Every structure is written in C-alpha cells, then in structure tokens.
Request: fold
Amino acid sequence: MAKRFFELADDMEIQGRWLLGDPTDSQGREVDDPWQFTEGCPVAIGERFRIPIYHNGSPLDFTLTDVGGAPVVHQRVATIFAELAPDDVQVISVDIDGLPGPYCILVATRLIRCIDDNTSREVRYWKSEDGRPEKVGQYRSVSGMRIDPTKVGDAKVFRTWGWTGTLIVSEDIKEALVGAGVTGGKFEEVTGPSDLRPEERERNRRLMTLAEQTDAARSAFWRSLGRLDEEVIIPIVVGGCWPARRQAWRVIHRGNERTLLVTDGLSDSFVDRAEPSVGFGVELALETNEPLDHVEKSWHLQVLERVGDELAAHESVREKVKAGFLSMEVSGQGMPDSLLTKEGRVGVLLGMESSTLPVRFTLSAGEVRLVTVKVLMPVELAYLLEHGKRGRDELVRRFAQDGQGHLSRAWRQSVV
Reply:
C-alpha cells in the first residue's frame, strides 16, 4: 500500500485563538533569521528563545509564528513527534510571554526533493528575468501540492525542497495528533492522484503563463523607478476582489531617502477569464521620506492596503480614479493620531500627478494608470470636503508650492 502524507498547517479559522510573533532573544529582540526554523535542517541554539503573543486569545497546541512560520507546539505535541520520528525533528524549548506551560519550537531537520510537478495543481519557478538569481530554478509558488512518496524514503517529518514553508507529516503521525486531540493544526493530503481534470490543468497553465508575463513586465517597470527591494517580504494575501484573487505589494527605494510602496496585482489578468487583460487597469503608489524600519508593519502599507481594497471592491471608485482625482476616507485603526479625524478615519487624495513618477505604464495587454495616494491631515480633508473641486485644486497647488508634492507623512505642517 502506498504511503500517505499530509501537510500540517495552522488553522487560522479557529475563533478567539491567539497569534504568536517570531522568536526573540532574552532582550526582546527578534532573531536575525526567523526563517531558519523552516529550512529543513537543524538549528544552532544559543540562548533560550522567547515567543511574544501579539494577539491574545485561546492558547493552541500547534501554532505557526507570524513571519517566519516556525511551528510552536505544546510539550505533549513535541513528545509525539520525538517518539514517532526521533531522527526527523529537533525540539527547542522556548518561553511564551505570560504562560507557564512548556512549549517548544519544532524543527523538521530533513529537506526532501519530492514535489510532483505533474500532479500538483500548479507550480511556478523563479526565472532569471525575475531579478532573484539566487532563487532561479526553485519554486516561486506551489498550490494543490502533490508529492512523490517513492522519493521520501523512511522520513516521517520533513520540508519540501524549494518550497520549505510546507511541513509534511506521515499518516501515522497525523493519526496520533488527531487521537491526542491536538488543537491548532489542520491536515491536507499531499499524496494520491491530482484533483484536477485535464481541461482545468490546461486552463491553469494558460493563467500561469499570463501571470508570469505580467509579473515580468510589471517588475521591469518597478525597477525603472528605483531599486526594487527583494529582501522585504510582504505576505501575499490569497483571495479577495483583486483580479487574480491575490493581493501583493512591492517596495521600491528611490533617491533622497524616499520609499515607494506600490500595489502589485490590481493590473493582473482576471483569473476567471483566462485571457490577457490589465485587470482593473490601475496600480497604486504611496511614497514617503519617513524612515521605514519595518515596511510590512507600517501605517503607510496599511493605508495602501485599505485604499486598494476599496478600489477593488467598488467599480464606481475605480472609474473615478481612472478619470482623475478622487478623495476618500479609510479606517484609521492602527494609524498615527496626527492623521485621524474625529470619527477615527484617515483621508487620502488619489491621482495627484508627480514630476518624478509617470502617470501610466504599459503591459502587453494594454496601459495601466499609476495612481498616487496622498495622505491628508484632518484639517486638509475638512477643507477639501467644504470647498469641493476648488478646494482640491487649491490643496494640490499648495502641496506643490510647499515642496511636498505627493509625499505622505504622519508628522508635518498642514498646508491649510
């Protein structure tokens, strides 16, 4: 009988659950490499790690950390792995803030090249034109994973070569965890026949080709604006209203210590049509000269995300943006107090032209408008709402006169 294997993932649908941050040292500083625990090899241990709780809720027996995705497990879960697969795991005791219970980081120490490209739903590889030479030949994305169990040998716990974010366990370990009532994990089989019909696979192949062509052309345009940051990882969100059902953002470093954040997917081809298009025909850009130590946690990115979601969800908003200026308000949750209106919102002005950014760029399927996002101070928003188009034009004139242009800052003098 063929062996069966399963991906063990974090069940994010559990209501009222906790969320854990990445490991820190005894001084509360995040480890330099939060991904070291998922690379499929043993980890060198120095001082004892601590795990912060960044969202309080019910503790779980199995949880993946925020960015690095390290499995944090209760001691009883670690014991199951150590007993059933002693040669495949490393157990590292850790402290979780505010909890006395014994917890561990579970490291899978084996890395196996076993993904079956032919039966997986979709696989994409990094190519030389993607600008990441160190990744060429590795997987860029894998969905509906299937592995070849004949390549696994005697391993019961391992990571998949080229796509190490996936933790694979054998059927007997799955049964032991389920039998013990372990909370927090969910299982998806990665062995067996493909779940795709031939016509679905061909459709996916066309979609993948379209996506690769669009990604390459758009990345080339981003690089023309500055240094495209390949190190900052902003997790791609799967789902939602964006054309390809994936939400992504990029970071571009420009002169004068400016950082440009852009949406990267509003101009994707529509996934439900499998034909070339520029999606919504727009991408958003928010530029700042404020220092950004952690872009993925910045208020600037939150603004860009919220504006992008509004644009994706409402055709009327998209049409107004493509026609010219548009002002809107988004949730101010987590934003600096200086930007908040009395109602706890943040105002933005979309579509200001810039002397340093083009208004549009071209993909193979057509033109895309690059729409700037300018964050307004509360009094500026009030002025715009009171005076309408005349007030908007006056604000734009004053921004240019003041030398701010389309830049967004939380701490600046209002032009009103």
